[in-house]
Amino acid sequence: MVTVQTKLIFEGSEDKQKVLDLMRRWSSCMRYAYKRLLEGHKRNELKKQLQGIFNLNSRYVDDAIMKAKSILTSCKERGENPNKVVFGGRQLFEKLQKRHINGKAYRKLQLKWQEKRKGNLYSRGDRSKKGNLNTRIEIDEDCTKLRINVGEREYVYAIIQPGWKIKDRTYTDRNQLLQAIGTCGEPYSVELKLKNGKIYAYFTVEEVFPRPAMTRTSGVIGIDTNAYPRHVAWTETDKSGQLLEYGRIPMPELESGSSSKREYYRWQYAYMIVEMAKDNQKALVIEKLNIKDKGKRGDFSGRKSRRIRHYFGYRSLLEKVKLLAKREGVEVIEVNPAYTSVIGMLKYAPQFMVSKDVAAAYVIARRGLGLRERIPHNYMMFLSRLDVNELEELKEYVRKVVKNTYVRKKQLREIDRAKKFLQSLGSEAERLSVPLDGTSAGSRGKNHNLWRVLRVAVVTPLSPDRVLRDMSVLKSLLVSGQVGKTYKGVSSCFLGQGLWLSQIPPAGAGKA
Q1: CA atoms of 135 and 397, how far apart (whole Å)
Q2: Which InterPro entries match (predicted)?
Q3: For the chain: N or C, fewer Cβ within 10 A?
Q4: Residue 383, φ and ψ in degrees, nearest 5
């Protein structure tokens, strides 16, 4: 959907007053319809009744009922009590009830609440009427106008004044876009809102996208978003999933600044990603994110976690990538991001000597092609020899080494989960009987748990207090099953039968 915000300029105060009266009646009609829907009344019962009460035509009444029904449905989906909905805004209403503000400030607050409560009008588009019958865009030689039906064959005309602040550079002129919406014959919806005594109009039309010309048949580009440090890692593959090229796009501008500035740069980075897909004639594979955790203790605690997530804006960036890709005919594939970082870190980072973020982008690309990840043979042999008692010793090691309370608790929880899963499998033979593949998107079964156990058993001893970035130390275990050279000064508890923790060098060991 494309939405254009504009301001309406009326020729006289009388015309504006007629529109304000229409908005007041429509808002009352919508609130009345909401109450009747709560009582169990049906749409057909209400339609004729509301026309007589509020002196509105059938289309306006139908739109008011539809809007009331959508509010009721969304309220139930969120698990809220629909009887406690406050039209005009609960926050403003509660401020007005407390009466802690007096004089002009209180009257200003009251006016703002009344505008939000009574200053609304919504009119749906109609394909059979080639646009919108009640609120129609009409084009003159000098300007673009909005014709508003305020009564029986009575119309008010208002000049449409589009803004000049354009965030999306696809449409360089909003006036041309409005004219295109008005003349294309497609249905468009119009919503009027009253703010600070001025009437604003929002025009919404469904965008028609071309058929994708760049699909997964020629390969894909996988995208992995990372908020700390702020960057996007990408990998290019052929149609069989073989790695061709990789890189990262730093995004320092998303670390701070106003919301409009960050929004501008998100558009710029989205264009950069889509242009890369166009140049290589590849489809894009992105994460299907469902971010609910806004501040739980983890790698980053409290305010720091919220600040990082807020400024980066995962969902906002990926939504822009999806929109621009559809406009340019680039296929966009969304995959479940579960365990992509873990699989990439353990399997592909040491194999290709790349960062764990690039490796995660490679796993995302392979998932977009429908490929499954097999746990390497040496890793499976390693897991078959792993004992629960060794994880107990690893817990003691974490307690001694990790000073940060929150990180220590998180690591101990992960070790306990790994222990519980190993105990559920039982013998070594039963562990090896678990199939090596089956880690496709949406799976949260035994195989994902195997990757979790592997991360705990291999990565935690190397870097128990922070995220390990250099995974090259795992290459010897991945390729040959050997752990590596002896490094003195590390705890002597062992990891895997015959594989001593003292044999695993810590991250960065051996570097100058």
Answers
A1: 70
A2: Cas12f1-like_TNB, Transposase_put_N
A3: C
A4: -65, -35
Classify 225 as helix, strand or coil. Answer: strand
Alpha helices, DSSP H, located in 300-345: 302-312, 314-327, 340-343
State the DSSP code for 500: B
Task: Check whether residue 25 and residue 159 sit in a common domain.
Answer: yes
Ranges of H-type helices in 83-166: 90-98, 103-118
356 and 463 in a single domain? The answer is no
The count of residues in the chain is 512
Same domain, 23 and 128: yes
Give the tens place of pLDDT for each residue, 451-498. 888 888 888 888 787 777 777 778 877 776 544 332 333 333 334 333
- Name the strand (E) or helix (H) holding 381: helix 377-385
d(CA 503, CA 484): 6
Task: Return the beta strands (E) in 243-374 as ranges.
Answer: 243-250, 283-287, 332-335
Residues 6 or more apart whose CB falls under 8 angstroms from that of 417 comprise: 449, 452, 456
Q: Which residues of the chain have pLDDT under 70?
A: 99, 163-174, 290-312, 426-448, 480-512
CA distance 492 to 394: 10
CA atoms within 13 Å, Cβ hemisphere of 355: 16
Residue 298: how many other CB atoms lie within 10 Å: 11
Distance between CA 20 and CA 288 in Å, rounded? 43
Domain that holds residue 72: 2-205
Residue 139 sits in the same domain as residue 10: yes
Query: What pLDDT digit, counting tens, does each position of 43-59 carry?
Result: 888 888 888 888 888 89
Q: Of 313, 344, 368, which closes a domain?
A: 368
Pair 311, 438 in one domain: no
By CB atoms closer than 10 A (0-12, 13-18, 19+), residue 330 is buried
| Residue 242 DSSP SS3 | coil
Integer CA distances (angstroms), 182 to 138, 144, 155, 199, 360, in order: 7, 9, 17, 20, 46
Residue 512: inside a domain, yes or no? no
The token pair at 488 is 């003195």
Domain count, the chain: 3
| Angle between the N-to-C axes of helices 58-77 and 43-54, in degrees from 0 to 180, rounded to the nearest 10 | 130
Q: Is residue 10 part of a domain?
A: yes
- Give the max Cα distance, the chain: 91
Q: How far apart are CA 117 and CA 115, in angstroms?
A: 5
- Helices 377-385/446-462 angle, 10° precision: 80
Q: What 8-state DSSP symbol labels residue 375?
A: P
Output b/e per residue, 346-358; b: 16+ Cβ within 10 A.
bbbbbbbebbbbb
Backbone φ and ψ of 33, nearest 5°: -65, -35
| 332, β-bridge pairs | 284
Q: Measured between alpha carbons, how far is residue 124 from residues 59, 68, 188, 190 in Å?
A: 8, 14, 7, 7
